[in-house]
Here is the input.
Amino acid sequence: MLGLQHLNVRSCRSVTDGGVKAVAEHCAGLQCLDVRSCGSVADEGVGAVAEHCAGVQIDCGGGISTRAAIRKPSPPSV
Here is the structure.
């Protein structure tokens, strides 16, 4: 799967954060991921893809996000 660039698992309810994370860790060249209507994919899986796959486009159903748009919130300033 090292050469995988596009993955569409739209509406596949058996896909989980763990599965998406595993893909991200082994497919750094992933360019496009569609996880719309995958009820078991949430922030953990999407965050792993953004972290491991530079410039990836992720379609989560709420539009397309990119690595630059998915960031962990900054800690509150004191």
Remarks:
- The chain has a mean pLDDT of 84.
- The radius of gyration is 12 Å.
- Helices lie at 17-26, 43-52.
- The first strand starts at residue 6 and ends at 8.
